[in-house]
Amino acid sequence: MAKRIRITAGSVTASAELNESATAKAIWDALPMEGRGNRWGEEIYFEIPLSLAEDADARQDMAVGELAYWPPGSAFCIFFGPTPVSRGGVPRAYSEVNPVGMVEGDAKLFRTVTDGDKVLLERL
Prior knowledge:
Largest sheet: 10 strands, antiparallel
Distance between the termini: 12 Å
Number of helices: 1
Order of helices and strands: EEHEEEEEEEE
Shape: globular
Helix content: under 10%
């Protein structure tokens, strides 16, 4: 069964699908979660109450709309464009992240979210 979530960040609401990874399962099991978003280029991240290890498939280069967990900061990440460490126009994480899913639809809507906006993750 697909694990679909709703992400509400500021005035933006989007649905997403989590992948089958152990990290995604841990996030799913801990939902709902809420925090205050931080912007880093065209990425939103916020600390979540999970402390998980880096997965074997962790990476820095991401796709627009991809979701990830950043182990050093215990943070959930939403990528929707280039970040300060990007090479070209694609998202790149600060360091290795665990890919956990993908936004359904236009992830660039998250461009309107600002530092400090509330971010809510919940099951659909």
